Each structure stands twice: as C-alpha cells, then as structure tokens.
Amino acid sequence: MAFPDWMLSLAATASFFCFFCLCVRYRRAARLFWGKLQSRIMARTEKPLFRIAYTLYTRTKLGYLYYKMQMRKAREHYPAGHSTCYPMEFSGIKIIPISVLSDNYSYLIIDTSSSVAAAVDPADPETVQAILKEEGVMLEAILCTHKHWDHSGGNKGLKRLHGSCRVYGNAADNIPGLTHPLSHKDSVVVGRMNFKALFTPGHTVGHMIYLLDGPAVGAPSSLFSGDLVFLSGCGRMFEGSSTTMLSSLDTVSSLSDDTLLWPGHEYAEDNLLFATKVEPHNASRENKYQLVAQQRGQKLCTVRKMHRHCYASQVHHPIKDPCLPAPGETRLYHLHTVLWAVKASRPSSWLTLGFHL
Ligand SMILES: [Zn+2]
Question: What CATH number has the domain spanning 76-356?
C-alpha cells in the first residue's frame, strides 16, 4: 500500500523535530559524540589526504601554480615584505636577509671586494633581482636548500637573467634549474667566500644546508639552514623518519657555538609559543620569547636582532645565551627542536609524546 505524499512529509518533519528535540535535550552528550566522531574521522583521513596534497604540491604543475598564486597574494599583502630586515656586514662580506612570500627569507651573501654574490633560496626572483641591482653586484651562484617551491621557485627566473649563474643543490630533490649537484661536505666558492654544503635529509629527501666559513674572512661562520632548523625549532619531517631528522639535527649541533643561524622562515614566535607549553617555567625560554614577541610586534625580522644579540653575548659576555646553545644549554636547545619535530610528525598527540621525551 502506498502512503500519500503529505503523510510521508509529515513523518519526515516529525522525525526531524524529534531528533532536534533529543539533540537539544542531550546537547552535551551530542556535542561530545560529535567531537569524538569528528576526531576519529580526522585521525583516519588526515594523513592520506595530506599525502595526496603534498604529492600534488611537489610533483605536479599544480604546486607551481599554487606557489605563483601565493607569491602574487604576498606581494599585494606585503608590498614592502612581511618583515623589516637589515643587512649585516663582516670584514668585506655583506649578508642581506630578504623577506619574501608570507614568511620566507631568502639571503644575498655578497663579497664586497669583488662585487659577486650568492643567493640562498631566492624564491621571489623579482625582489631578489631588485636588490642585486641596488647593490650593483653580479649573481654567481644560487644555493638551493630544497625543492619546495617557496625555496626553489625563483631559480629558473634568476638563471634566465644571469646566464652564467650556477644553481647548486642535491640531485635527490629534483631542484628546478639545477646545474651543479652537490654531495655532503662539497665546497662552493664564490669570490672570497667558501661555503660547505651539508646533506641534511628529513624535511625532504635531498635537503642541504650551507655553512659559510667565517674565520677565513675574520667573521663568525654563518649557517643557511633552509627548513631544517629555525630559531627555537626545526622543520617538519615530510620525507624522512625521526631518526633521519635527528641525525641531520646532530649535524647542526656539531657546529661551533658562535655559528650564526639564518633560517628559511620567520617562525621564531610560533616556535617559542610551542616551547612555552612544554617548558612553562624555563626562564631562558621566557627571556627569548619576550625578545622575539617585542620584535614581532614591530614586524622586525627576528634573525637580525637575535644575531646581533647573540654575537655580542658570545664576544663580550660568555654567559647563558638565550639565542644559541651555549655550553650547558645544548640539551635544552635540543629538547625544543626534537619536540618540535615530534609535534610536526604527530600533530594529534604531540603533547603526550612531548612530555615523555
Ligand atoms: Zn620546505
């Protein structure tokens, strides 16, 4: 027997009304149930969905288009860059941090006596080219840390403008425009400057960092760390296990304590906020956070002030240094970076894992 339409509509409305009343009556239980259901769905789908998005970003043209869109947006949003950066000079070597995209840093390292330069991760070729012109220097080399478009997207554009420019990086990373593949501990010479390439996989399979030999030119050494290490944190492990990442972090911790760190992103405030949750009563961490928060309030690039401060304290006050791992503080520094790595790899359970480390 077929029911008339009006009866079916009435039954559906009544069922919906009953369900609604039940939800209102037991809203706390319903909210709890819905929350649990949502987190279960998220836990099951988060990883596969992320893997699909990551593959599309790194292996298809879609990634490049996304990077171009991000660059256009960033130029509109931050016509003068996301942060105010200042160059630093050491006996004939000038290091210029360049604020690009929404939170990336590229670097120009200039040998002022021969007016030649190397660029680290020049992701926005127009911005980098404008500074090369302003400084009146020739681009001799691009040191690319890894394949992600926000680091490598400008390689080909700059190479077109500077035909003799060499593009360095690791072959495992499929770096656009690569002309000179590098292995662990290879050297790159640009003018009087000598860079050592260090293989540090984990963030990507072919991630490299570049160490500028400072003592050779009467300056502290400088590490251009890409997405391996930032101020008080480290990069996500997209293409490596935690063991691989830790071994790459060990490469950094084996460097001299007065090495200056020039990271690939402005993540200092985020990293220190995370560290606040892990170590709420750590005074050194708190000092560092206050300094960074003050700088970010004025949209200053934290790299510069950190470095000046670190450099001064290393030279004049060999005391507990809130910026770099001073003797006795190495464990603390490590703890933050390791916890960050764990958090990045297991977003839903970082707190538990963090406290168990
Ligand atoms: Zn990256």
Answer: 3.60.15.10
